[in-house]
Amino acid sequence: METAEADVETVVDELTLEEKIQLVHGAVDPDGTATGYLPGVDRLGIPEFRLADGPLGVRVNGSPATLFPASIALAATFDPNLAREQGAAMGREANARDQDALLGPGLNLIRVPHCGRNFEYYSEDPVLTAAFAGAAVEGIQSADVIATPKHYVANNQETHRASVNVSVSERALRECYLPGFKAAVDAGAGSVMTAYNCVNDSFMSENRPLVTDVLKGEWGFDGYVVSDWFGAVSTVESANGGLDLEMPGVTRDELWEMFDLEPPEDDDDAVFGETADVSDGMPDMTNTGNFGGPLREAVERGDVPHARLDDMVTRILRQMERIGVLGGGRAASPPEDDGHRELAETIAARGTVLLENDGTLPLADDADVAVIGPGVEEISTGGGSSEMDALHEAPTATGIDARATGSVTVERGVPPIEKVSFFGGDDEGDDQRPDPTLDDAVSAAADTDVAVVVVEDAAAEAVDRDDLTLPGGQDELVEDVAAVNDNTVVVVQSSGPVELPWRDDVSAVLESWYPGQADGDALAAVLFGDADPSGRLPVTFANEEDYPVTDDATFPGIDGEVQYDENLLVGYRYFDATEADPVYPFGYGLSYAAFEYRGAELVDERRVEVTVENVSDRAGREVVQAYVRPSNASDDRPVSELGGFEAVSIPAGETVTVDVDIDDLAFTEYDETAGWTALEGPFTIEIGRSARDVEFELTL
Ligand code: NOJ
């Protein structure tokens, strides 16, 4: 390690000022494959460096890759090992496509239930988020590709994301919004991407307290800090604040070229694809090149110290050295791996949450099924920079048709839901089929054993959903189908919480998020019982008015400023404090199996041992959860917090003992003068199946 550091130092010493500048801002990728590109310095053996989006798979122009389920679906597995495996698979695919850094994982906390990018994030809970963030980073970097946790920090809404000032307490930052990033850094992340927004009056690209003092100083992060695209708002302030790399560093027109896209003819606000009306959430794309000529001049003037520029370059070269590209010694991954296809399906099935079931699920193999919904002939994913070309596509209806032995009929019921796409054009015009009708859907449903209605929202980067209702008349579609078929199963493909007003009138409800390329195969496995839908909700599902962001000051903000008034009470913590009933609580999810909790005991101060029996005649997966409730906490603390969790497969009729580690975060609080302090005990440790379903209580 020391030799590596010395090597980097030697190279930095030999670089000219011009070459150093070339290494800290992006340029046009001559191959046109990457999202961000550095040209390298040939004479010193510094290679080109390519950065690719993330976080649901690797987007490389012209080279499809595995499209994994949305990150929120991954988090719904409550199994960070799967994040490690998915990370490693994405890392290998990035490496095989000659990419050096992956722009993920996305790990902002889910604060606003209808935030457009919730599908790219993990959870409303910091402990769950941190566990997934750390595992994803380890996985990606195991393939010699740099992970880029993003967007640091408090990018919790897309409305005005490029300008909004987030007013948030230091305490909420430390206890809620930062732990995911800290875990990513502790796991060895080589890079961190700054958010577009301001936090407490300073843009994140130039936020010295959070970037230099906390991230690099307190946490000891020795990688590079990269701006979000067109998010380096200044030269001197950003460089001196701690930003190391400006991306993409090129002009808007060069970007069109790089992504091989046609510039829109007359719409200055349009960003990428023609369907994208996301101007409100986009950065100023004319403000670019701040770390090019302007940085060189600032260094020459002495406004940015030479030592700072050397540090910027050192941080980037250190990561090149680490993955073996600075000497040309990185081992190449194979171009494709069939295991990745299977993994994408396993995660999609395991992340599917069974919200309701009157016994209709799982279906008999020979059930006749009508598959109904506007998007059943496609795979489901979100819009924005995470869009990519999938290697294999299993559309919803195709997967069900392949698995069913009875008859399968397909009806769309309502017109396609309008989606925002950054890259895809609007190909609706090519559809020659007659418009779908509710009547056709209802007749198909009336005529079959089971109606599977697949409903979806439309979420994308740069724009928040309007509300939590399903668009395009889909509630009516469900109600009309349920009125004629007593075995109506609704599958929800959404980016986060949605309202399900008909949930008591149908036989079963599954939340399968955006399942990615394995969509239909994973859904068929769940519907027919080949896989247990073992997901649990990583976010609270509730009526919109019960969330803590219902007035303009808390979302989307007034006069450019948003107040995080709920402070520590993000997600389920707010529902506990207000005693409002969620529709489905955090951590909730059913199973085809049935579990009984037989005992729980404390092994030590940070670990409990829980005994669970699968009392059914089928194998299933249970997620044991431990919540910590301090007895003497101040009034503004959460009533209880998730401390730890463990997902476990339990064969039919068997009993297992599960160890659950409890995170220190649940036993400490951040005081703005004293720093981290221990909370006073005694603590009640609640062992249960969700934030609202406690099976055992222990005292610590
Ligand atoms: C903007 C997005 O916010 C970020 O997540 C992404 O990595 C970059 N664009 C590059 O596409």
TrEMBL record:
Gene3D superfamilies given in the database record: Glycoside hydrolase family 3 C-terminal domain, Glycoside hydrolase, family 3, N-terminal domain, Immunoglobulins
Superkingdom, natural source: Archaea
GO biological process, one term: carbohydrate metabolic process
Keyword Cell inner membrane recorded: no
Family: Belongs to the glycosyl hydrolase 3 family.
Name assigned to this protein: Beta-glucosidase
Keywords associated with the record: Hydrolase
Record-linked SUPFAM superfamilies: (Trans)glycosidases (SSF51445), Beta-D-glucan exohydrolase, C-terminal domain (SSF52279)
InterPro entries documented for this protein: Cellulose_deg_GH3, Fn3-like, GH, Glyco_hydro_3_C, Glyco_hydro_3_C_sf, Glyco_hydro_3_N, Glyco_hydro_3_N_sf, Ig-like_fold
